Amino acid sequence: MNGGEFPKKIYLASASPRRRELLQQLHIEFEVLPSNILEVRQAAESPVDYVQRVARDKARFVTKLVSERGLTIYPVLGADTEVVLAGEIFGKPRNREHALEILGRLSGQTHEVLSALCVIDREQEYSAVSVSRVTFASLSALEIKNYWQTGEPLDKAGGYAIQGKAAAFIARIEGSYSGIMGLPLYELTDILKKI
User: Fold this and answer.
1) Annotated catalytic sites, by residue?
2) With contact defined as beta carbons under 8 Å apart, do 33 and 11 qualify?
3) Residue ranges of the domains in the chain?
4) N or C: which end of the chain has fewer CB within 10 A?
5) Fold of 10-194
6) Largest separation between any pair of C-alpha atoms in the chain
7) Is the pTM of this model over 0.85?
C-alpha cells in the first residue's frame, strides 16, 4: 500500500503492541522509540485536550531524543487513547480491584474512546483526534472477574481490548475500530499523505 504515498519510515513514540500491529497493517516501516513522559491530567483539562496534549508531548519527547542521539530524521508519531465515561477518564487499571471497578462502571453503558495522534515532521506538527462510542452489554460480576483472569485488562485503557475477548461484551460501536484499538488509521493515513 505504501507505494511512495507515505514517508519512507517513521518513529513510533510508543511501546504499544497494538499500535505496532496497526502500523504493520499499513506496511509502514517504523522504529519504536518509547516516550518517557508523565501522563497526568491537568486541572480543568477536558478529556479531548488531555489526549491531544499527551500525544503531542510523546511526539515532542521522541523528536528531541532523535536530535540528541543524532539519529536519522524521520517523522515521529505520538498517540494517546483514553476511555471516557461521563467526563471521567479511565486509564489503564492500577490493579485487579481497579480493573473490576472500571469494568463494572462500563457495564451496560455507552462510553467514548478518544484516540489522539500527533505527527512531527521536522518543524511541522500535525494533529488529529478520533472519537468513537462503545456500548457495553450488562456484565455480571462473574463475567468481569473471569475477564480479569484472562490477563487482557491490565495494560489497556478502560481495562479492555476490543480486539480480544472483550469483543463478546460489546453490543455496538460507532466510529473507528482502529481508533478504539489505539491508533486511528484513517486519520493517520490522512496526515502521512500530507507529509
Assistant:
1) 80
2) yes
3) 10-194
4) N
5) Maf protein (3.90.950)
6) 53
7) yes
